[in-house]
Write a structure and sequence with these properties.
Helix content: 25-40%
Oligomer: single chain
Number of strands: 35
Radius of gyration: 31 Å
Number of domains: 6
Strand content: 25-35%
Shape: globular
């Protein structure tokens, strides 16, 4: 079927020549303008395409469109022209890859993230709300791709939905997968579902790369001309599938974590050793002050230290000393650009993917006991009642007197009298022990600070984290919930105080800051949380307009089987904390001004805040606000990626541990109810899984969505959120990260 050309050209044809007005010739009669035949053919083809698609309510496949407009060009040229019109935003392609008129849909650019469930979101460069990308719209686009999208109203929810129209930059560089022989070719089956399908292997295959081995491969530009698959070149053979090392490598590749530093970055880090102590003569010298660090026992870098001086009025001057990373990482240096790109360190089980090279994080910027180090210090004066009276900040030089683990510090804290008798002072109690004197003063101060913070409206709960003991091969030998004690809480309160003091100090001088913001929960989340509380059990639901109401709910379930579940739901019901140049407040802490200052070794926003504070102290101009806004958005995105990678690593090791215990019984708590089964959490190891309806006692099970309950119509038995049960482990699937149970009875049996 053919179609005649229509449009402006048709209306202007008379006797085989063009007529019209000439702007350059008197009398208005124009000589025909010379036009190259190929150019004319392309113009006529464009006009025919426009006429057809503007009038059509549906799209057309490339070949159909080519036939309908009369085959005006060779087909390859026609396809090229369609691509150009797509890039220009004139045309778009629908879900079936048909060509349609764009109709003025908005476009934007941003970074793609892909969830483990297979759908995606594009985080726009301009900071506008993220755009949902359905699973069938991802095609061969990958995690961290920078893309151009077309935005239209969502059909799945209140947020925007879009379609990727163009790849702007591919940031994913490597893939981990299982090597499979297919005829005379090799294919790679990725460990991560984020790659969307099998990958064609090209180039030389190492002799040890046998069928079924797991390999690391470098992604190459373009796709396989026959299958459209991604192509890659094998760079390393990792070993057999299912081993801890191989699975951990798949986590790093799946989230595109940068596991090595480029040579220029490492060279620059080595050169920074020349900028050590002697280059900073004007710093405040605190090497005679009693300063010490308190960290986990397995910590390799120590980026914060504390000191305290009692004041004559009964108050204290607390100083928090943070490694001066900005001294060793000049702005816009190779080190700085790499740190910005990473955004933060990623703490996987058994290893860290650092933001900065070890030359800095474990040496120059680590506050090692007995070594001179450069710091940026926050000095805060508190009254005897814990009110902050004054804060100042200075570039300092310290020498840590002692390195404590949290357990060491806890033992010292527990040695202090619970009730201090009249006339008790740390100096009289420990006359020859200045470190113990300082610890005793700190123990008094942190308790006052925490009490005041909670009284003013701070939220106080912490969801325990799983801690693994690994063997030499990375296999988990044990897993248990991490226990935080008073020494942990003490350091936490001091870091909160320093972060708050820095943010308030910058605000008081009218200076810009990258704030850590946490907005109040939204209406939808509030509604879902209240519905959850109504079905959790009888309780009085307070007003949730302030943090005090949320804290009251958490306290009401403290010490019960429901406590952990409730804390998790509270956390999910809150808005996600993020970085922003606007001071939007921190709902959970109850602070109006709050920033991250205390961990520049592992968080890029802290490094920014250090630089902003130094600019204030040195009376230098601020950077452009737009640069800080983009840095805040980028840091928030990188934090999300890091958190997802950390969760995946934890889940992987939980399943590795459970895989050795198929058939064993566990105490569990129902954390969710659906028509297909129960989601059950194992509090002992903080892992969860599914108990399918098929594994429940024989009955007619009915799901009541209003009460979030599964009811047996014959027996009258029921299961609801928060209920304690006993389960047997049936399956622990590493590849799909799934755990299945069957019911054995009530909890404790």
């Amino acid at each position: 079927m053919s179609r005649r050309f229509t449009g402006p050209e048709k209306n202007r044809r008379r006797g085989g020549r063009l007529v019209g007005k000439s702007p350059g010739r008197p009398g208005g009669t124009a000589a025909p303008t010379a036009e190259d035949p190929a150019t004319r053919a392309r113009r006529l083809a464009r006009e025919a395409i426009f006429d057809l698609l503007k009038q059509s309510r549906r799209g057309f496949k490339s070949r159909s469109l080519y036939n309908l407009v009369g085959r005006p060009l060779p087909y390859p040229e026609f396809r090229t022209m369609l691509g150009e019109l797509l890039d220009a935003g004139t045309l778009r392609r629908d879900e079936l890859r048909r060509w349609c008129w764009s109709r003025g849909l908005a476009r934007n650019t941003g970074t793609l993230t892909i969830s483990p469930s297979g759908f995606g979101h594009v985080h726009p460069d301009d900071g506008s709300p993220r755009v949902f990308i359905p699973r069938n719209g991802l095609g061969r686009y990958l995690q961290d791709d920078r893309v151009e999208i077309e935005i239209h109203p969502s059909r799945r929810g209140p947020g925007p939905e879009g379609r990727i129209v163009k790849l702007l930059e591919r940031r994913m560089t490597h893939v981990i997968g299982t090597l499979v022989r297919y005829s005379r070719n090799w294919l790679l089956i990725p460990e991560s579902a984020r790659f969307g399908g099998n990958i064609t292997v090209t180039g030389e295959v190492p002799p040890e790369a046998e069928d079924g081995k797991v390999v690391r491969a470098e992604l190459l530009p373009g796709t396989d001309g026959r299958s459209g698959a991604l192509i890659a070149r094998i760079t390393r053979v990792l070993g057999d599938p299912g081993t801890p090392h191989v699975m951990q490598e798949s986590v790093k590749a799946g989230f595109n974590l940068r596991t090595s530093f480029p040579p220029p970055v490492l060279e620059e880090a080595d050169l920074m050793s020349l900028r050590m102590i002697d280059e900073a003569p004007d710093r405040e010298d605190l090497r005679e002050r009693v300063v010490f660090t308190i960290d986990p026992p397995d910590a390799r870098d120590f980026d914060d230290a504390v000191s305290i001086i009692p004041l004559e009025d009964g108050g204290w001057e607390l100083a928090v000393h943070i490694a001066d990373v900005s001294h060793f990482v000049p702005q816009d240096s190779a080190l700085d650009r790499e740190a910005y790109r990473r955004g933060c360190s990623v703490y996987l089980v058994g290893e860290v993917v650092p933001m900065l090279p070890h030359r800095l994080s474990s040496d120059l910027c680590s506050l090692v006991e007995g070594e001179d180090r450069l710091c940026f210090s926050a000095f805060m004066r508190f009254s005897s009642h814990g009110a902050m009276k004054h804060a100042r900040f200075a570039e300092t030089r310290i020498r840590s007197a002692k390195r404590f683990s949290y357990q060491d510090a806890q033992e010292i804290i527990e040695s202090f009298p619970k009730r201090r008798p009249a006339g008790f002072t740390p100096e009289s109690a420990f006359p020859e022990e200045p470190v113990r004197q300082s610890m005793c003063h700190m123990d008094r101060l942190w308790r006052i600070l925490k009490r005041n913070r909670l009284k003013k409206g701070g939220l106080d709960f912490s969801i325990p984290e799983p801690v693994f003991q690994l063997d030499e091969q990375g296999k988990p030998l044990s897993v248990q919930a991490k226990v935080s004690r008073e020494a942990n809480f003490m350091i936490e309160e001091f870091m909160l105080a320093a972060n708050r003091a820095v943010a308030e100090g910058l605000a008081a001088h009218g200076r810009l800051c990258v704030h850590r913001v946490h907005e109040a929960p939204s209406g939808d989340k509030l509604d879902r949380f209240i519905a959850f509380l109504e079905h959790l059990g009888p309780m009085e639901i307070p007003s949730l307009d302030t943090v005090a109401g949320w804290q009251q709910i958490v306290k009401s379930c403290e010490g019960t089987d429901k406590s952990l579940l409730l804390q998790e739901v509270v956390l999910r019901s809150m808005m996600k904390a993020r970085y922003d140049v606007q001071a939007l407040g921190h709902f959970g802490l109850g602070f109006q001004h709050y920033a991250h200052f205390t961990s520049p070794i592992r968080r890029y926003p802290d490094l920014i805040v250090h630089r902003l504070l130094k600019r204030l102290l040195n009376e230098k101009r601020e950077p452009p606000r737009s640069l800080l806004e983009e840095a805040a958005r980028h840091s928030s995105r990188r934090e999300v990626v890091a958190q997802e990678a950390e969760r995946d690593s934890v889940r992987l090791h939980q399943i590795l541990w459970l895989r050795e215990r198929i058939g064993e019984d566990f105490d569990g708590v129902v954390r969710g109810v659906e028509n297909f089964g129960l989601f059950v959490e194992l509090p002992a190891i903080l892992a969860d899984g599914l108990l399918p309806v098929a594994e429940l006692p024989d009955d007619r099970w009915s799901y009541d969505a209003r009460s979030w309950t599964l009811v047996g119509l014959n027996s009258g038995a029921s299961f609801k959120v928060g209920q304690a049960i006993r389960v047997n482990l049936v399956r622990a699937d590493l590849e799909n990260r799934q755990v299945d149970f069957r019911l054995t009875g009530p909890s404790g049996q």
